[in-house]
């Protein structure tokens, strides 16, 4: 049996809108990562970029289950000795909820050029409005 190789003309990209209001952040991020990779398509192959565009709205209303809101930390390093910056997710969700959701989606994508390319097709908005009405995105139910 031969390996299926989709041609560039076979790959079509759609736009999907995910409403994250009241849903767990991990479930929203997992569904977004699946759509970004193209795993929901019948012509999916792991070595070809065949994913779709994803718009996540209402990122500020996502829910962190358990005690993650108080206990989970985001850490980054500035590059200087001893400059490890730590931010709690309760502060991160108040100030930059779109970045918190982006971190969750990025963690579910592969650490390859395909994963980095897929992350460029992700658009996250803290509120309920988005700027991609011209692309006629479809609503994807979680």
Helix content range: 25-40%
- The termini sit apart by 35 Å
Write down the Rg.
Answer: 17 Å
What order do the helices and strands follow?
EHEHEEHHHEE
CATH fold topology of the domain at 15-64 and 93-139: Ribosomal Protein L13p, Chain: A
Biggest β-sheet, characterized? 4 strands, parallel
**Total beta-strand segments:** 6
Mean pLDDT: 96
Strand content: 15-25%
Q: Please count the helical segments.
A: 5
User: Strand order of the main beta sheet, please?
Assistant: 5-2-1-6
Helix and strand content put the structural class at alpha/beta
CATH architecture of the domain at 15-64 and 93-139: Alpha-Beta Complex
Your description of this structure?
- The protein has 142 residues and is of the alpha/beta class.
- It has a domain at 15-64 and 93-139: Alpha-Beta Complex (Ribosomal Protein L13p, Chain: A), CATH 3.90.1180.
- Helix content is 30%, strand content 18%.
- It has helices at 25-37, 68-71, 89-95, 97-107, 113-119; strands spanning 15-19, 53-57, 73-77, 84-88, 122-124, 138-139.
- The protein has a 4-stranded parallel sheet with strand order 5-2-1-6, covered by helices on one side.
Describe the secondary structure blueprint for this structure:
Blueprint: E1 15-19, H1 25-37, E2 53-57, H2 68-71, E3 73-77, E4 84-88, H3 89-95, H4 97-107, H5 113-119, E5 122-124, E6 138-139
Based on the model shown, name its key terms.
alpha/beta, 4-stranded parallel β-sheet, globular, 142 residues, two-stranded antiparallel sheet, Ribosomal Protein L13p, Chain: A
